[in-house]
Recover the amino acids of this structure.
């Protein structure tokens, strides 16, 4: 897995960043480039990680990890109320993982 500064392109100060990764917090600390960590810290970025691929497998969604990412996005972005997001997501498949297990990273 390669993470680069281009992943942060367009992210504004105080923005929210969600990274789909299988890395633990410890591994993330090792693998994230120092320049990214510095940018995240200096710009007060809300940084979250989620292993959407594993969650999708655990939920029987196969390779449709995009549903997990969408759920986590709705939760973090707070664009619409969570109950409305659940109703929207339920129309798109047999199961909608609104309880996506995104975690705030300590990085």
């Amino acid at each position: 897995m390669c993470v680069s500064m281009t992943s942060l392109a367009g992210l504004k100060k105080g923005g929210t960043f969600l990274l789909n990764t299988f890395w633990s917090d410890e591994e993330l600390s090792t693998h994230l480039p120092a320049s990214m960590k510095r940018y995240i810290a200096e710009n007060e970025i809300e940084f979250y990680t989620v292993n959407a691929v594993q969650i999708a497998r655990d939920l029987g969604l196969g390779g449709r990890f995009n549903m997990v990412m969408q759920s986590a996005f709705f939760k973090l972005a707070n664009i619409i109320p969570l109950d409305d997001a659940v109703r929207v997501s339920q129309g798109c498949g047999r199961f909608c993982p609104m309880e996506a297990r995104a975690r705030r990273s300590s990085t």
About this structure: The two ends are 17 Å apart (CA to CA). The helical segments are 25-31, 34-42, 52-58, 65-77, 82-90. The mean pLDDT is 79. The chain has five helices and three strands.
